[in-house]
Amino acid sequence: MPMKLADLAAIAGVSTATVSRALSGHPAVSKATQERIVALAREHDVRPNQLARNLRLRSTGAIGLAMPLGHARTQHLTDPFFLSLLGFLADLLVERGYDILLSRVLPDGSDWLGHLADGGRIDGLLLIGQSDQYDAIERAAERYRPLVVWGVNRPGQRHLTIGSDNVAGGAMAARHLLERGRRRLLFVGDPGPPEFADRWTGYRDAARAQGVEPELLSTVMDPHAVHASVAARFAAGAAPDGVFAASDVAAMSVVRAAVEAGLDVPGDLGVVGYDDVTLAAQMSPPLTTIRQDLVQGAALMVDRLLRRIAGEDVGSAVIAPELIVRASS
Question: Which of 146, 203, 142, 197 is nearest to 172 (CA)?
Fold first, then answer.
């Protein structure tokens, strides 16, 4: 017969309640007592009933991780940016004892977020990106507090976000290309989602400040679609000499289309991406990019979510981007 908490309490010389609190990490039990009881529990293979504990605390012990794809239904969780951020978030949540409920959401209707939040399966929700669902997220944030989003922060915004300063990142890309002598500038990406819109705004405004009017090549953020759009643009003539792509994956498609068109990168064309995914440094030529610090971002998202779950009033944070210069520009 498995040992009960009462049996372990007798061995430890404390009450059953103290054993229960020690195994759940309750601050009322001293660290030394917690360590002693945890060691005894391992020695005697005692496992408290997690489900019963969760019911007492009105907790599921799980956090939802969701990626809304209203603007890019062909995009997958295998995208290097999403994989990296999801990996960092998952590691941090597991370290804190949470299970993870992962969803790739294709929004259908206006209450998809309410269904995720109110399903009774999670204690809180992390969203990776705002996509074209900004208004839906704003409505959910009015009544659902344990919600943290990777994305942009707008004046008066209700939902809590963590994300890089995309306007500043776009401006960095423009200034870098202009300093390299590039004057025929192009932005490649979908200007609809807030993050991409801010990158285009920063790029455009910084270029205009130096007397250059950049072009916008709007395209779905799918590698095949980006490649096809850029290849068609190059085939039409009057190729740009500097390209800022809204993501590293898009920038890789730009480089491939340029090489196929007989253009030298960076001789004929300088290319800058955004994100600094792992593959960016490994491609040929290595990609110049605007780095988002995903390690810091993931830590902030998890910290703010857990503090929201605990009832604290915490707000959004903006992470400074960093220009990483490599051989593509």
Answer: 203
41 — pLDDT class (breaks 50, 70, 90) = confident
Q: Is 62-164+294-320 a CATH 3.40.50.2300 domain?
A: yes
Contact criterion met (CB below 8 Å) for 272 and 328: yes
Residue 228 burial by Cβ neighbours in a 10 Å radius (0-12, 13-18, 19+): middle
**Whether 214 contacts 186, CB under 8 Å:** yes
With CA atoms as reference, report the closest residue to 271 among 209, 164, 166, 188. Answer: 188
Residues forming beta bridges with residue 232, ordered by sequence position: none
Model confidence, pTM: 0.80
Measured CA to CA, the distance from residue 195 to residue 128 in angstroms comes to: 12
Cα 33 to Cα 78: distance, rounded to the nearest angstrom: 45
The rounded Cα 151 to chain-centroid distance in angstroms is: 8
Q: What is the pLDDT of residue 55?
A: 46
The domain 166-291 having CATH identifier 3.10.50.40: the answer here is no
All structural domains of the chain with their residue ranges? 5-48, 62-164+294-320, 166-291
Cα-based torsion angle of the residue sequence 270, 275, 279, 284 in order, rounded to the nearest 10 degrees: 0
Q: How far is CA 162 from the centre of its chain?
A: 8
